[in-house]
């Protein structure tokens, strides 16, 4: 599946995209509120400014993804892979990041404390 097909299917009401492969997809500014991307491969995807509040990204591979200025408020990112991801100015209000992994190359907004959000460093 590519980004255009995902957006088309989302627009007609589909929300469940469990385990979809969207590696390197360009979804800049996409409105994907409440989408289910459980265990999806979004490695290297560009999700800058995407609207993903309430989304399920648990178990998703977001390694090296660009989430700059994305809105992930209320999203589930339990056990997600955020190694090397860019999360500058990303809205994470009430997002569940329990068990999500990160590494030294993961870029968070200034002052963000991954330990206080129950994330684990790899």
From TrEMBL:
<dbReference type="InterPro" id="IPR001646">
    <property type="entry name" value="5peptide_repeat"/>
</dbReference>
<dbReference type="InterPro" id="IPR051082">
    <property type="entry name" value="Pentapeptide-BTB/POZ_domain"/>
</dbReference>
<dbReference type="Pfam" id="PF00805">
    <property type="entry name" value="Pentapeptide"/>
</dbReference>
<protein>
    <recommendedName>
        <fullName>Pentapeptide repeat protein</fullName>
    </recommendedName>
</protein>
């Amino acid at each position: 599946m590519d980004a255009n097909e995902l957006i088309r299917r989302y627009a007609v009401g589909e929300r469940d995209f469990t385990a979809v492969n969207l590696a390197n997809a360009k979804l800049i500014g996409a409105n994907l509120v409440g989408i289910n991307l459980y265990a999806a491969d979004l490695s290297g995807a560009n999700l800058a400014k995407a609207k993903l509040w309430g989304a399920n990204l648990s178990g998703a591979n977001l390694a090296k993804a660009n989430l700059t200025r994305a809105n992930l408020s209320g999203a589930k990112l339990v056990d997600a892979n955020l190694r090397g991801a860019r999360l500058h100015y990303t809205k994470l209000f009430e997002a569940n990041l329990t068990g999500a992994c990160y590494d030294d190359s993961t870029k968070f907004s200034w002052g963000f404390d991954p330990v206080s959000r129950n994330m684990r460093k790899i």
